């Protein structure tokens, strides 16, 4: 038995009859904004904000610490590398959650810093989760430094 099907007509009918699809708005990014009296405080706070987006930080204890040293070719690359280093440690160290970050050395002319991050490893029974940050981006990154207030904006990929 030979059966010939007009696929174009079948496809047209299917598309007309079936409307089980929709376009959904989707964002793969979130912008973090932090501020402080100094640039160091703004940097520290944006790092904490990143982990606060991923986890409920009030349940995190300061049980361990990790030290990072980073540099860049300008202030934006320093900020990027600073956040990227902490995000990398998060994944490398069994989802270590940084609740507090302290910059202990800072060279603004050489674009380098040393920081200590405090927290603990992720525990599914203890820590609530939000949305995972996958990467830091330069998109819309801003660093605004004034005499009495410093602010930073960083977009992260989620």
UniProtKB/TrEMBL annotation:
An example of a Gene Ontology cellular component annotation for this protein is: tRNA-splicing ligase complex
Q: Which UniProt key words apply to this protein?
A: Calcium, Metal-binding, tRNA processing
Is Calcium tagged as a keyword?
yes
* Gene Ontology molecular function: metal ion binding
Q: Which InterPro entries match?
A: Archease (IPR002804), Archease_dom (IPR023572), Archease_dom_sf (IPR036820)
BP terms from Gene Ontology: tRNA splicing, via endonucleolytic cleavage and ligation
Name all Archease domain ranges.
Answer: 22-158
Q: Which is one Pfam family of this protein?
A: Archease
What family name appears in the similarity comment?
A: Belongs to the archease family.
Q: What is this protein called?
A: Protein archease
